[in-house]
Structures are given as C-alpha cells and as structure tokens.
Amino acid sequence: MNISNTPAKDVINFMSKSPVVMIAIGSIEYHGAQAPLGTDYIIPDYIVSKLAHREDILVLPSIPYGNCQSIKEFPGTINIGSTNLINILNSIVDSLLSSGLKKFIFINGHGGNISALDQVGLDTFEKGGLIATVDWWNLAKLLNPDYDGGHGDIQETSTVMAIDRNSVNLNYCEPLIINELSNEITNKYITLHNYKNGNVKIMRSFKSVVPNGWIGPYDPKNSTVELGERILKDVIEYIEDFIDDFKKIEIN
Ligand SMILES: [Zn+2]
To answer: Residues 105, 58: contact at Cβ < 8 Å?
Structure first.
C-alpha cells in the first residue's frame, strides 16, 4: 500500500497490521554523458513501485537526493551531504516508530549513501526498530556474475534503459579514462587502489580519477534493455523472498 495516495482511514487500518515500511533512496548525479542524472533514483524507485502491490508493505515516497560529495564537481549533480540524509531518514523513521511501525527496508541506489544508511540503521536499532538495506547494484552482481558493474557502466546504464529507454543515449558514450597516481599504485575503483598483493584506499574526487564520470568493468556503449530487464527481474524476485522472511522476525 502507498502511504501518500490511499485514503487515510485505509492506511491507518493497514498500519495496525504492522507492515514493513519500504522506501527508495537515490541521488541526482553524473553517470557519464549517456545516462540520466537520476539513474540512482530511477532504479530503486522502480524496484519499490513493483513491490507496492504487496499486502505487507507500506511504501513511502522515494527520496531522490543523496550524499554526492565525491562527485559534485560534475554539472547537474546535487549533493545534500550525509548529515542531511541522516537527519531526513531519522526524522521519517522516528515518525513511523511513533506510529508503532518497527521494520523498514531501504532500497538504495547510490554508493555514497551507504555510510548514512548504516548510521540510520544503527540509530533505529537503538530505538527498538530494525532496518534492512538493499544496495541493488551489489545484490545484482552477487545474484549473477553477468550483472557485474561499476558506476555508469553497462550495469547501471542497461538497468535504467530497461525502465526508461529515452533516458539514455548510447551515442553520447565516452571512453574510460583513469588518471592513475603511479605505475605501482593503480586504481581498482575510485578510492580503492591495487598495491602489490593488497588494496589501499586513497580518497580523491570522482572527477580527478575518471574525468568522463564513469568507471567499471564493462563499457556502457554495450548496454542493452534486455540485460537491464534480467537484472531488474532477478533483483525484484530476491527482494520479494527477503520480505517474506524479514516480516516474520519478531521485535519486542
Ligand atoms: Zn549510480
């Protein structure tokens, strides 16, 4: 059930059955020239919309903004920072805890949100609630190695294409350029670097590492609607199963 467009009496009756609260959290940020700025918002918002029919889920409006400090140099990126995201989410959760709801699922679309979501999860636990967070892109690559991906590469571009074909223009794809720090210390991802047999994290902004704004194992120019549809189907099926077991957990 959707909290915002259902008669209030029906929502209040529904809340008395202790549904799991679900909310999508994203960002507005650069994902390479070919993909929409709303990639990280559009995908989790779509996933949640496909679960809204369930009788055990109370769906909240999605949050389109996130913490984009590392990528804010790219035009069009909107950064509300971790502190603001924590405050918004804690306020939302507190309001629903006071209405007697205790279980929440965050469907997250953006890696920069992870530390904030961890903080809200722990804050909520201390108040007697429980939050499960699904980082859909990490889940996808665990479900099938064919779904591996990075930021703005084939995984995200294909997935957002499958939701809205007109939001992507593959003709705009630019090559992967990585500004390495040295021949010995090389980028594994944006902050994670390879050195000898291990990894070391070195914080730099996205733009200083990848001036074209995307990074990942597979070029976004090969993105397809078909791949995106498979990813979405498998991720949604997994979350459906997870809800079935998450809702059975007893919280005192
Ligand atoms: Zn993204």
So the answer is: no
